[in-house]
Amino acid sequence: MKPLIKIKYDKLKYVEYISYKSMEKHFDFGYSLLNFICANIKETINNSDDVVKELENLSENDDYFIFNVFYSDEIKRQLENPTLDNAEKDRRIKKILDYMEKTQLTFSTIIDFCFLYNADVTGYDRGIDRFIFICNKLNYAISQPKYTFATFDINKQDKLNIKDVDFETLDKEYIDFKLNNRNLNRFDGASYTCDSIDEFFSICMLTIFDRHYIISRCKNCGKLFVPCKKNDALYCDRISPQKDTKTCKQYASKKPKGVQELYRKIYLKKIARVNRNKDNYTLKNEFETWKTQADKLKADLSNNIITDDDFEKWLLENDK
Ligand SMILES: [Zn+2]
């Protein structure tokens, strides 16, 4: 049987609600998918002496929620299959994990191309066309999940046979539904039913484009995240690898900033100006030249070729 999850997005709270079997989970928008893409699952399972126990551990960790839904049960089924010898079990599990790894790679490649490759320059073009283009190039089919209203249980409805459609009855049912759900905002109330990880990926990506969100890589832990409230946020809300009482964002805000902060301020000012004047290619070229030079100096700074003072001086001289 295929796994079946229902997903609903809360636009105001930047939260996604996922129900699976009898479980109800909620995540900050995008984290369920991106945690799956960033996780080193194949290696964890391959290095484990006891796969059953490892799967149990993973099932308790919400970071692995998507793995648990779409892969874990399938692996367990192979392990529990009495007709298979150990070598055959291993072979089948390896196949599932290889396929999963390929899926992770496909998703991360698509995201890299849409949002992260040359992000400062291609920031002008983070549209859905870029998504469709890379999917086509990878021969990856975008699969739409079933879409419905949150209050409308698609499985409990009488389904119509195309030969029995009676518009009058249908229209009455529709009007009843509208009357009973007068306050429902169509988009916020929508929910999706996914029976494959590809459907889940597609709806997450389409929602990102629909809402003009982006995907970034956290400058502290290196994992992917959707900065919903502020597209230029640098740090995610995961627990930071350095301190388990703080998120990456909280950890980073305690670090001294100095010249990096100055760079960031000037950078944001410049890119905002470019974005406001999309047809001004001179401005765009000037920005790109500035960015190339700034990147070079930043690298020199981290290699101790120049000092903080040198970089600050250059930033101030080139801030116009
Ligand atoms: Zn982080």
Key phrases:
single chain, 320 residues, alpha+beta, 2 domains, 5-stranded antiparallel beta sheet, two-stranded antiparallel ribbon, 13 helices, 7 strands, 52% helix, binds zinc ion
SSE arrangement:
Elements: E1 5-10, E2 15-20, E3 23-28, H1 31-38, H2 41-46, H3 51-59, H4 65-80, H5 86-116, H6 119-122, H7 128-137, E4 146-149, H8 167-180, E5 190-194, H9 197-210, E6 216-217, E7 224-225, H10 248-253, H11 259-276, H12 281-302, H13 308-317
Antiparallel strand pairs: 1-2, 1-5, 2-3, 4-5, 6-7
Helix pairs in contact: 3-4, 4-5, 5-7, 11-12, 11-13
Task: Describe what this molecule looks like in 3D.
The chain folds into two domains: 160 residues, no CATH class; 65 residues. Helices cover 52% and strands 10% of the residues. The chain contains 13 helices and seven strands. Strands 3-2-1-5-4 form a five-stranded antiparallel sheet, covered by helices on one side. Strands 6-7 form a two-stranded antiparallel ribbon. A hairpin with a 6-residue loop joins strand 6 and strand 7. The N and C termini lie far apart (61 Å). The model has no long low-confidence stretch (mean pLDDT 88). Bound molecules: zinc ion.
